[in-house]
Amino acid sequence: MAESPEELDTEIALALDGASSRHHAVAMLQAVQDRLGYLPMEAIEAIAARLDISKATVYGVATFYNQFRFTPPGKRHIRVCMGTACHIAGGKAILDEWERKLGISDGGVTEDRAYSLENVACVGCCALAPVTVIGDEVRGHLTPASIDDLMLRHKLEDEREAAERQAAAQGSEDPERGES
Questions:
Q1: Burial, 8: exposed, middle or buried (Cβ in 10 Å; 0-12, 13-18, 19+)?
Q2: What are the strands, taking DSSP E only, across the chain?
Q3: Does domain 76-172 match CATH 3.90.950.10?
Q4: Fewest 10 Å CB contacts: which of 48, 53, 83, 153?
Q5: Angle (nearest 5°) at CA 130 between 127 and 132
């Protein structure tokens, strides 16, 4: 994800490359969100300028469709399927458990930006109901109790990544370390 205003501008420009017709507004919004994970106001402004329409018009298009986000998602974006099969198999209980464990509601992001939560209409994995998609990983046949296991796995992954970053940083601080 873009860290500086310059990186953000570059990412937006890359996402909008080649699009210039008013008919491309939704595709342009999708391209930016695919690239950044959300739609920052800078993207709304860039699309409006590219299409020579008002920012309000672009924002109106973006808010019409519930697929668009205006805040950056968490490191792990959790989508809980609420399609018919998942709903019948307990999808609401899964969503409720995620909300309880994370301390956020549907559409929210944890304060540390580690997680974001969203209910979706269907993820197309009905045979695995109830389903949660974390990032690109599909988790099926969930129970409220299995949420603890997933969160523990995430905690362990985060600790491993932090240890690897720390080891890499220490290695770069001491260039003679590890040499015989």
A1: middle
A2: 76-81, 115-120, 132-134, 137-139
A3: no
A4: 153
A5: 110
